[in-house]
Amino acid sequence: MSRPLKTPTSNLGSNGGARHPEERRRGGHGPTLDDEACYLLPYSEAILEGREPESPVDGPNSPAHWWGEYLPAIRRWEAVTGRAAPPPTEPGRKGGPRVTAVWVERLMGLPLGHVTDVPDLTRGQQLQILGNGVVPQQATTAYAALLDLGV
After folding, report:
1. CA-to-CA distance for 89 and 151, rounded, in angstroms?
2. Does residue 16 sit within a domain?
3. Is position 11 within any domain?
4. Is the residue at 118 inside a domain?
5. Would strands 97-99 and 89-91 be described as parallel, antiparallel, or unpaired?
6. How many domains in the chain?
7. What are the CA-CA distances from residue 71 to residues 2, 41, 45, 62 (Å)?
8. Tell me, what's the pLDDT at 24?
9. How is residue 109 annotated by DSSP?
10. What count of other Cβ atoms lies within 10 Å of the Cβ of residue 45?
11. Most distant CA pair in the chain: distance in Å?
12. Which residue in 17, 54, 69 sits closest to 38, CA to CA?
């Protein structure tokens, strides 16, 4: 089983560019979701190498080679949501990869466009909203557990 990806945080779109997770650790900090998406997922290698990443295919699943060790988790979530995972990163302003808000939205288990289709929100604002959000499935589980306890 692969280790989980980092949780989205409210500063995801404003904490500077992604850095290799090991570089971030050497600086005394833990890696961010942006760091992991940009440096640990095979999809982002094309962007890092200055190549155009492969476009997603139509159908229920995204290309398997995008995900590396995270493929089983991605496939489970594709089955739950009924839709293919979107590309995790895109070229940023300086050409390096940066995490996409639509992928973070999907990781959170939100309906497509729940945050990313809201008019006039910048990518940074979308990521801040997503990072401050709650995974609906987790909230439902927590409430059910509290109700079972009679709280």
Report:
1. 41
2. no
3. no
4. yes
5. antiparallel
6. 1
7. 9, 10, 16, 10
8. 85
9. T
10. 16
11. 56
12. 17
pLDDT in tens, 16-42: 778 888 888 898 888 888 888 888 888
Q: What is the DSSP secondary-structure string of 43-62?
A: GGHHHHTTPPPPPPPSSSS-
What's this model's pTM, rounded to 2 decimal places? Answer: 0.85
CA distance 12 to 131: 7
d(CA 108, CA 101) in angstroms, rounded, equals: 11
Token code pair at residue 151: 């709280």
Domain range for 113: 21-148
**How many Cα neighbours within 13 Å face the side chain of 16?**
4
The answer to whether 54 and 63 are in contact (CB under 8 A) is yes
Helices (H), 82-116: 101-107
For residue 92, give every residue at least 6 positions away whose Cβ sits within 8 Å of its Cβ, in sequence order, or none.
17, 98
Q: Residue 72: which H helix or E strand, with range?
A: helix 71-81
pLDDT tens-digit series, residues 107-131: 999 999 999 999 999 999 999 999 9
Rounded to an integer, what distance in angstroms lies between the CA atom of residue 72 and that of residue 76? 6
With 70 as the cut, is the pLDDT of residue 58 above it? Answer: no
Could you give the CA distance from residue 137 to residue 71 in angstroms, rounded to a whole number? 21
